[in-house]
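Worked Example 4.2. Consider the chain below.
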Amino acid sequence: MKIIRKFLADETGATAIEYGLIAAGISLAIIAIVNGLGSNIRTKFTSINTSLK
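Applying the procedure from the previous section yields the following structure tokens:
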């Protein structure tokens, strides 16, 4: 029983998991922002290209 209690009380890996989740959240936000900006920039360049022809 002592081993099980010690295992359940051990929180050494929790910090690494939390940092991993934070990094995943930040990367998802960056991907969403870049994806949104990419489509806006594509339409701007298409508009400029059309007006130059």
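The chain has a mean pLDDT of 87. The chain is about 90% helix and 0% strand. Compare this with Example 4.1 before moving on.
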